[in-house]
Structures are given as C-alpha cells and as structure tokens.
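Consider the following input, taken from an annotated entry for Twin-arginine translocation pathway signal (Candidatus Accumulibacter contiguus).
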Amino acid sequence: MIPSRRQFIKTGIAGSLLLSFCGWLNAAGARRLSNSEREMLGALCNAMLEGALPRDHEQRRQQVALTVDGIAVEVAGLPLAAQKEIGELFGLLVLAPARFMLAGVGKPWREASVAEVGEFLQSWRASRLNLLQTAYGALHDLTFGAWYARPETWDAIGYPGPPKGYF
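Applying the prediction step yields:
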C-alpha cells in the first residue's frame, strides 16, 4: 500500500512531535535514569548478556541491576551532547508507540521475553539504516562496558585485571 500525501504529512508531523517531546524530556542534560529507562535497559541487558548471566532469578536480577547502574555511570561520564543523544534514544525506546514502531516490541519492557528483545536488537544490528546500526552499537557498547567494568566478570574472558606496580 502506498501512503497518500496526507498520510505522509501526518506521519511526518507525528514523528516530529514525538522527537520534540523526547528532546524536551531530556533537555536538562545530565540526569538520573527514570524507572522506565531502567526497565528498558534491564530488558536489553537480559537479552545481550544471555549466557553470561546466572540462571538463578534473584542473582540474575542483581547482576542486571548492577549493569544498569553501570550504564547510568557511563552515560553520566559522557559529554553533555552525547548524553542528550543517548537520552533521546532512551526516551524513544520507553514510549509505547515508539517502542512498538521502532523496536517491534508491543509489550512493556518488563514483560518482553529475552527472545523478543533479542529479535529487536538483531534487527537493529543488521538494519540497512546506518542510524539504527549506530543506535544498536551505542546500546551494545554501554551494556558490555558496564558489564565488564566490574572485576567479578573478568574471569569469564580470562582477563587478569589491569597491570599492577607500574603506577
């Protein structure tokens, strides 16, 4: 189906309003993660770190929470312009209509399965749109950066830790 000019204009206006709203939400610069952003990041961590996370539900929940805390620290350490861009991405992913249109996830993040979130991430990773690949890369790097910033995760990859005695 080819959209009419009127539908195209309405969609463009709706998208512009949605992006403006997300920008307005994140205009304050450095800030704390909202509960909805934490839920979204928790769902992403569960999918991206599948296989590395413990199977025990409570231990898994704790490890995901620590990783989300690490992402918050990483984002706070970025330049304000990068924080704003990440905030806009997070803002889009937590809004239900945008989450469904961009990620294809119809359920709230806390209810989405690891498989559903994994499919969304893979679709962005393999997208022909550079913007979605870049967004995937940012989510990937933030997640794995926060995960491997914790010394207790180093054994899994054989990393002995930073050199000692040189500083």
